[in-house]
C-alpha cells in the first residue's frame, strides 16, 4: 500500500467522473461559461481553483474545531478571499496579459460554489490530509470539464489552440480555410458553453445510466 | 415485384430489430401501409400527422417556386437594373428559374438529406418510429436562409438544430423551440457575415466582391436602417420582387399559404392575426414617436421608426414567421386566449427588435424563439385564470 489508502484514492477519483462538480452537482457553472472561450484561460482558471480549493480545504480543516459554527461562513470567506488575492497578485506579476483576460473572474473564484460547497461539506468534518485530497480531486474534476469546454470552444470558435493557428490562417486563407471553412462565431458566445457542458452531461449519462435521476 | 412489395417484405424481415423504424418510415412515407388497426373502436380521421405535415408543405410550395424565380431575377436585376422597369415581363423566365434550380434545390436537398439522416439515426438508436416533424422543418429551412449560404454551413446548422433543438428533448412534439428557427438562429450567430449585410441576398454577390462586376443587393430593411432611399414600389414589396431570404419575400404568396393553413384548420388564425396586429401596433407607436418629434433624423433608429406601420408588415420575414413559424402547434400556445397573447407579443417584439437593433435588422426569428419559451407560461396563467374564475362562480352559488 502506497501513500493513499483505497478510501483516499476514491476522494481523488470520484469527483473526476461519477461525482463531478460541474456535470453531476452542477456547481461552478458561471465560471465555466465566462472564461472558457480560450483554452489558456481555462487552464489558468483550473490551476487557480486547484490552488485555492486544495489549500483552502487544508486551512479550514485545521481550524475546524475552533471555528464557532455561527460565524463559519465568514471565516470560510476570509480564507478563500486571502487565497484568491494571492492568486490574483501572482497572475498580475507573472502573467499580466492573461490576468487581464480573466479580469474579474479570478476575483469571483470567491463566489465559486464548488469552493464553499467543499468547505461546508467536507473540510469541516475531516482531517487535513483527506481534505487536501478532496480539494484537489474536486478541482481536477472541475478543471477537466473546463479544459474540455475550452478546447472545443477555442478550436471551433477561433480555429486556434492556446493561440496557435491549428486550422490555418483565416485571413491568408490557408489550411482548412482554403476550402471555405469558417470559424463558428456562436462558439465564442456564452450560451454555447452551456450547450457544450450540456452535451458532456448527456454523453456521461448515456455511458453511465446509473447517474440518470428518477422522475 | 413492385417497390411497395419490396419495402413491405423488408419491413417484415426486420420487424423487431433495430433497423425496423427506418424501413417503416420509408414505407409509410411513400405508400399507405397495409396494416389496419385491430380490436376496439377507433376514431377515424383523415388528417394524421403525415397528412397535416404534407398540407403545410403544400402551403409553402408557392413560396418555394416563387423564391426560385426570384433568385434569378434578383441576380440579373442587380447586374442590369433596367430589368426592374418591367418586373412581370422579366420575372417568369427560364433563365431566372435555372438559377433557382442550381442554387435553391441544393439547399432543399441538403436540408432534407442531413436532417432525415439525423432523424433516422436517432430513431434507430432510441428504438422509436421516425417522426414526421422534420418534413416541415426541412422545407422551412431553405426558405429562410440567404441564397448564397454555403451548403456545409447549412448541414452543420441542421445537425445542431435537430439534435439540440429537438432530439434532446425527446423528438417531435416534445421540443420547446421551433427546430427550423433554432437552425436559423444558429446560422445567424455562428456565421453572421453570411447572414446579414448587402452581399448575401443576391446570388453570386459574394464572389464578385472587389471585381469590376461587383453587385450588391441590400435588403429593404437594411436600406431603411441606414436611412437610404428605397427603390422598390409597394407593389414590389407586397408581391415579393425584392432581395431577401429565399422564400420569405412574397407577402402575397405567404397569405395564400396562410389561407390554406386556416382553411384546413392546421394553422391558428388567432396567432396569425394577432401577430400582424401586434406588429402594426408597435409600428404605429414608433410612427407616433417620430411624429411627436421625440427623435430626430440624427438618431440611428430614425430610418426604421419612420417607416410607415403597414409597410413593416410587408417587408422582412414578419409575414413568413407569423404564418409558418409562429403557428407551429408544438411550440406555440395551446389555449385560445393564450394564442392571442402569444401572437400579439411575437409581432410586437419583432418590430421592436427590428428597429432597435439596426446591426441585424430582422427580429422575427428571435421574437418567435423568445415567445416559444414563454408559451407554456402563458398557457399556465390562462388555465389558472380560468380555474380561479370558475371557483369564484362556484363559491357565489354555494353561499
Mean pLDDT of chain B: 82
Distance between the termini of chain A: 42 Å
**Which segments of chain B are poorly predicted (pLDDT under 50) over 5 or more consecutive residues?**
none
Task: Tell me, rounded to a whole number, the average pLDDT of chain A.
Answer: 84
Which strand-content bin applies to the residues of chain B?
under 5%
Biggest interface, chains and residues, is: A-B, 11 and 13 residues
Radius of gyration of chain B: 23 Å
SSE topology:
The complex is a heterodimer of chains A (215) and B (399).
Chain A: H1 6-13, H2 29-34, H3 39-63, H4 72-94, H5 96-102, H6 104-107, H7 113-121, H8 128-158, H9 190-207
Chain B: H1 3-13, H2 20-30, H3 49-79, H4 87-91, H5 94-126, H6 133-143, H7 151-165, H8 179-190, H9 192-195, H10 220-225, H11 234-239, H12 251-263, H13 269-291, H14 302-305, H15 309-314, H16 318-325, H17 336-356, H18 364-398
Helix pairs in contact in B: 1-2, 3-5, 3-6, 3-12, 5-6, 5-7, 6-8, 7-8, 8-18, 12-16, 13-16, 13-17, 17-18
Amino acid at each position: 500500500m502506497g501513500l493513499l489508502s483505497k478510501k483516499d484514492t476514491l476522494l481523488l477519483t470520484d469527483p473526476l467522473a461519477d461525482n463531478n462538480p460541474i456535470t453531476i452537482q452542477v456547481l461552478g457553472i458561471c465560471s465555466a461559461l465566462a472564461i472558457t472561450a480560450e483554452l489558456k484561460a481555462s487552464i489558468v482558471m483550473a490551476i487557480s481553483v486547484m490552488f485555492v480549493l486544495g489549500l483552502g480545504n487544508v486551512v479550514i480543516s485545521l481550524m475546524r474545531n475552533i471555528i464557532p459554527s455561527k460565524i463559519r461562513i465568514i471565516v470560510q470567506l476570509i480564507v478563500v478571499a486571502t487565497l484568491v488575492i494571492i492568486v490574483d497578485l501572482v497572475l498580475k506579476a507573472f502573467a499580466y496579459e492573461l490576468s487581464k483576460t480573466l479580469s474579474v473572474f479570478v476575483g469571483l473564484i470567491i463566489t465559486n460554489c464548488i469552493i464553499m460547497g467543499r468547505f461546508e461539506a467536507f473540510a469541516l468534518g475531516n482531517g487535513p490530509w483527506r481534505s487536501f485530497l478532496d480539494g484537489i480531486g474536486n478541482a481536477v474534476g472541475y478543471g477537466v470539464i473546463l479544459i474540455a469546454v475550452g478546447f472545443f470552444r477555442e478550436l471551433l470558435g477561433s480555429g486556434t489552440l492556446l493561440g496557435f493557428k491549428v486550422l490555418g490562417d483565416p485571413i491568408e486563407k490557408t489550411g482548412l480555410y482554403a476550402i471555405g471553412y469558417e470559424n463558428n462565431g456562436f462558439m465564442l458566445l456564452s450560451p454555447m458553453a452551456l450547450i457544450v457542458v450540456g452535451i458532456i452531461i448527456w454523453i456521461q449519462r448515456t455511458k453511465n445510466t446509473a447517474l440518470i435521476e428518477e422522475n | 415485384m413492385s417497390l411497395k412489395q419490396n419495402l413491405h417484405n423488408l419491413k417484415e424481415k426486420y420487424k423487431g430489430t433495430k433497423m425496423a423504424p427506418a424501413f417503416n418510415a420509408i414505407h409509410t412515407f411513400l405508400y399507405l401501409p397495409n396494416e389496419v388497426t385491430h380490436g376496439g373502436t377507433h376514431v377515424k380521421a383523415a388528417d394524421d400527422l403525415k397528412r397535416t405535415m404534407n398540407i403545410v408543405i403544400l402551403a409553402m410550395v408557392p413560396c418555394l417556386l416563387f423564391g426560385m424565380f426570384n433568385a434569378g431575377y434578383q441576380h440579373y436585376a442587380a447586374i442590369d437594373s433596367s430589368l426592374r422597369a418591367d418586373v412581370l415581363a422579366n420575372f417568369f423566365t427560364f433563365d431566372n428559374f435555372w438559377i433557382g434550380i442550381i442554387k435553391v434545390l441544393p439547399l432543399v436537398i441538403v436540408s432534407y438529406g442531413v436532417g432525415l439522416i439525423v432523424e433516422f439515426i436517432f430513431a434507430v438508436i432510441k428504438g422509436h418510429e421516425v417522426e414526421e416533424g422534420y418534413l416541415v422543418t426541412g422545407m422551412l429551412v431553405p426558405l429562410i436562409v440567404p441564397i448564397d449560404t454555403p451548403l456545409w454551413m447549412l448541414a452543420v446548422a441542421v445537425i445542431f438544430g435537430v439534435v439540440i433543438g429537438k432530439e434532446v428533448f425527446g423528438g417531435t412534439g416534445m421540443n420547446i423551440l421551433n427546430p427550423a428557427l433554432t437552425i436559423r438562429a444558429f446560422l445567424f450567430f455562428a456565421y453572421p457575415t453570411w447572414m446579414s449585410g448587402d452581399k448575401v441576398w443576391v446570388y453570386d454577390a459574394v464572389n464578385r466582391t472587389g471585381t469590376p462586376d461587383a453587385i450588391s443587393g441590400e435588403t429593404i430593411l437594411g436600406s431603411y436602417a441606414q436611412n437610404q432611399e428605397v427603390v422598390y414600389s409597394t407593389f414590389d414589396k407586397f408581391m415579393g420582387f425584392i432581395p431577401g431570404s429565399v422564400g420569405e419575400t412574397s407577402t402575397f404568396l405567404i397569405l395564400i399559404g396562410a389561407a390554406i393553413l386556416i382553411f384546413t384548420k392546421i394553422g391558428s388564425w388567432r396567432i396569425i392575426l394577432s401577430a400582424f396586429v401586434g406588429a402594426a401596433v408597435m409600428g404605429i407607436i414608433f410612427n407616433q414617436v417620430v411624429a411627436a418629434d421625440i427623435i430626430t433624423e440624427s438618431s440611428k433608429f430614425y430610418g426604421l421608426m419612420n417607416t410607415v406601420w403597414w409597410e413593416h408588415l410587408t417587408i422582412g420575414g414578419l409575414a413568413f414567421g407569423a404564418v409558418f413559424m409562429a403557428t407551429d402547434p408544438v411550440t406555440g400556445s395551446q389555449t385560445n386566449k393564450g394564442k392571442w397573447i402569444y401572437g400579439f407579443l411575437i409581432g410586437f417584439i419583432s418590430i421592436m427588435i427590428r428597429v432597435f437593433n439596426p446591426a441585424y435588422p430582422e427580429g422575427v426569428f428571435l421574437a418567435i424563439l423568445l415567445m416559444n419559451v414563454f408559451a407554456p407560461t402563458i398557457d399556465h396563467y390562462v388555465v389558472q385564470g380560468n380555474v380561479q374564475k370558475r371557483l369564484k362562480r362556484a363559491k357565489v352559488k354555494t353561499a
